[in-house]
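Figure-free illustration: sequence to structure, shown twice.
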Amino acid sequence: MLDLFLVFSKTGLVLFKAAFTALKGDPVDALVRTVLLENRETTARAFTHGLHAVKYFLVNKYDLVFVAVYPSMLSPPYVDFLLESVARTFCKTFGDDVRDAARAVEEFRPKFDKLLWEAEQGAGRARRSPKANNTTGSNSLAASEPHEDEASDEDAVNDLMQRQLSRRERAAKGPRAFQGKKKKGATAVDDEEAKKKKKHPAKEARTWDGQSKVTEEEAQALDMSENKASDQDIDRANRERAQKYMPDCFGEKADIDKSDEDDSDDDGDDSANGGWNFAKTSIGSFFAGLTGQKPLTKEDIAPAIEQLEKQLLSKNVSTDAAAEIVASVARDLEGQKLGSFTRGIAQAVRESCHTALQRLLTPKRSTDILREIKAARAAGRPYTIVFIGVNGVGKSTSLSKVCYYLKQNGLNVLLCACDTFRSGAVEQLKVHTRNLDVELFEQGYNKDASSVALNGVKYAGENGFDVVLIDTAGRMQNNEPLMRSLTKLIARNRPDLILFVGEALVGNDGRDQLVLFDKALADYSESADPRRIDGMILTKFDTIDDKVGAAVSMVHSTGQPIIFVGTGQKYTNLNRLNVSKVVKSLLS
């Protein structure tokens, strides 16, 4: 069930490779980029990329990495045992000459085949043997013995076949075979009387011959000509409804374009100005006794690190992300000599936490959308952005905020209505286009969303639009037909940016939605290099107080950045994620 087994050095030299089937994508490259290079190793030593799962084993003595790739839907029970046995045999065979790639490939393949065969046989015996099932650990695969009691296995199989046969015989007799016996004394007359009792009076049928008269009350109820609102009244009502979205003054810039001194990063202790003081937080108190010139050890910082992890979990940070952050802080603090608490441990811990979160939240790709749009315009094509997510998270509102931000920066924006499923979705976008004074491309309902998007992008190119914002229907992450439809839209249109819109309120549920959306785009794509989510927009970020852990968890799970956060209903309430404020909220 293995797809690939690979041995390479941390310098990138491939020493041994055993390929069993062609891979979809490059999971090993993804492992190196997102885990090994960023020092994001976990205790599970496992990694998932598209259709493939990856497990790896590190030998730090020789700087070697042993990697096993297998289908994510299948989990061979012998992978851990195989990695350890191959690593042990490989290092024992080559010793100090372990980096001799030509010799390794030539001489180690027979030994690898034997180790793989032994691991597979051991797994098979473990499944058949009750004793092996009671043991734990990878060594149980090697120690398991063949099951000797073949008679008991045969009896169990015969018994199962007999039960299945008897069930088929009852099914052949019809549904009555599964019901109880009829009560004694019951007759056909009793059955008829019981049926009559169950019958309800029939509803009077409506006649549509046009001959029946309509009463005066019914005519008045159907008459909509009286008290009909004038066009002025309709416009006034539309303006009143639009007030909750419109900025406070004409031409007001979006929050992202406003200069806000509170958003500046200040790594110093601002307690003197009445601001945030790490020493007064619940975490800072645990470090109060760790002062002096003695270098810090793991034992010294263990209680504080444990409290730090609990603090992160209480702020909705996922378990994996919290473990990575505290491990990074522990590595930075171990061996340091710290002076007074006020300028020693407090400053050190704050800087370490800030560095860990900064490394996690810093985008790995450019988030300057304006620069990318200008590059696309120079190439003579419109820049396309697709908004995806579950139902009711604020995709259309977030799209309109991005539209306002782009229009304030002098760009010609076209909205494309590709939610052809939900009733009222097109009309909702029409309200936003009227408020924002932009054009809407729509082709009604019950249309193929991918074709509507394709026609919209073509229309934008022909009419000189700079940006196309594509609105899609909300869908649950486990709805396969709708997820396939979304994958088709993305595959046909190849957008420049795919933004997942999620709620900051839902905590780690948003992380699960993001992971499954991203996985579905890869699983249902027919391309060898499928498009996946490029970034996130977190809505209702102003309502979560200090429960900001969802932002950390979502970035940690995919490695993609949070492009914008929504902080209100108005078009101007769009901002970037402020890392310093996130750090203060997590540690306060």
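We now fold a second protein in the same way, so the two outputs can be compared directly.
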Amino acid sequence: MASDQKCINTIRCLAADTVQKAKSGHPGAPMGMAPMAHILWSKIMNYNPASPHWFNRDRFVLSNGHACALQYCMLYLTGYQDMTLKELQSFRQVDSKTPGHPESHMTDGIEVSTGPLGQGFANAVGLAIAAANYAAVYNKPGFENLLNNYTYVFTGDGCLQEGVSCEASSLAGHLKLGNLIVLYDDNHITIDGETELSFTEDVVKRFDAYGWHTQIIEDGDNDFAGIERAIRNAQQVKDKPSFIKVRTTIGIDSSKAGTEKAHGSPLGDAEIEKVKAKYGFDPKALFNVDQDVADIYSQAKQKGKALESEWQSLFGKYQAAFPDLAKELERRMKGEAVHAWREVLPTYKPTDAPKSTRALSQICIQKLAPLLPEFIGGSADLNPSTLTYMECSPDFQPEGLIKGASFAGRNIRFGVREHAMAAVCNGLSAFGGIIPYCSTFLNFIQYCLPAVRLSALSRHGVIYIMTHDSIGLGEDGPTHQPIAAMAQIRATPHIIDIRPADGNETSGAYVIALQERDRPSVLALCRQDIPQLPGSSIESVAKGAYTLVDHAGEGKTADVILIGSGSETHLCVNAAAELAKAGVNARVVSMPSHRLFGEQPVEYREKVLLTGVPVLSVEASSTYGWSQFAHAHIGMEGFGTSGPAPKVFEKFGFTADNIANKAKALIAFYKSKNHPVPDLVHVPKL
């Protein structure tokens, strides 16, 4: 039987070979963290390589994702079907399952996509919150360990310098997440050189202050028993997350050990051969794993199969004892939707009272939340403003902190931590069986964008409920008024943008957001009251854009098309009525979603955006991106201003009169210049 030392040395050489074959990557951290990885995968973690999605598995997050050669090596050694030798040898190559940083949607065994430093750390907090919530809801007397997994994290200096990890660490400490265990690879090296150049704080004291349980391993290169002991000690601490600082040597046993030169470039063939010779391995053998080492890791499959079998047996007994809860849990584990949730969403008539779409969203949330136990989320200390608190559930808090609150609660108090909030929601989504949402003002989605981008990349169906969505928020002024936010969202692949124009469209926005489980949605909602519109419907939102009003009448063609989005759509309706009095026939198109409209077939889009008819878009934000749908635009070319919303709208031309006048000017432009109106639908896609 191979010793721990031989297994660790094998990991080090395998990782170095993986990076060297690619001629690209980060060999130093995998070599330094090999003892931590060996102990965790061979002695600590509960997982089943033959069943990567077993629900009660422990979760592992490599927050310092540049060290992913280590994670790929561990998946290969322990027998994950996805991770073959060929995949290791294809590291960082096109279409491989071993990309340059871990991507959860590509490779079994990768729980979350990491690489942007600190994101994985915050994702792990989300995974731990999810596990705690599941356990609080479904574990019952006699079944206290039905759901009892841990979340383990490897992190580095870079992650701990990023603000998102600070926010997430603070939240995890407040929540007393005893199922979260972080191992800090303290190798004293960043890309620039020694950490003393920029990072001299006492990290352990920082985590003490956050309310974490902390331990230190002074010799992480050799103290294997100490690493195992520290992790097992951490498992016993139930009322605090655990932080274990492990002092390691980057690129250990190479001539570049302990320097930045071991960080981001292959060591070189000759250097790796020297390391292998030092370990007593064949210097020329590439990707070699001796049989006695392979035997150690092959036990993971046997152990994992037994663990899952035991758990399935326990779950069978649970089904008999708690059939309703078991049925619900099984549905969520399978990712199946609740039946008939759409029917509770409200519909509206034009005679109904005007309301802001944030208030209309609040109604949707209160209708949906009792039916959807998987609907979990909160705001960045903005519940009275974003109106996203679920009245049917208490807070998610450690017991005893707030009366009635517990880990069974579904309202998460994220605090003023927008970046971590979004990243935590990615972790909630990654856990499975959860529909996470989070909320702040649309302008402050800027704080969240790195995590929002990873939602899209990783196919997490997070719902971003963003209120105060334009200059219409008024008096708070240009520091809070979003101008470019929608353009940024729409420019990011795989995100559904939805800016509803009234109550029916708000209900439709929730239909889309809830059924799209592999794409995030951003719901941009207004602060000011707006009317319920004639011709709107829940179903039309799925088309992205649709004809709301057409003054041309049946069999005739409109003179101009006004496209409105969100709270400006009713202004287009009013402008069209004014134009009709002047003998100008306008069609009003509501466009809640650029993305969804762009996905419609040409045949549908050409029915909405008529060939030969000039189109004017109206949105109280940047006009960037609108040129694909309109010939001219009323929008924001600069920042807004502070003042009552009606006055701010008037100042920047968002009035029915101005829209009507601009529409007339647009019609006149094409007539006077005798230019054909450019076709917006039939354009080449090469």
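Summary for the second example: Residues 65 and 101 are 5 Å apart (CA to CA).
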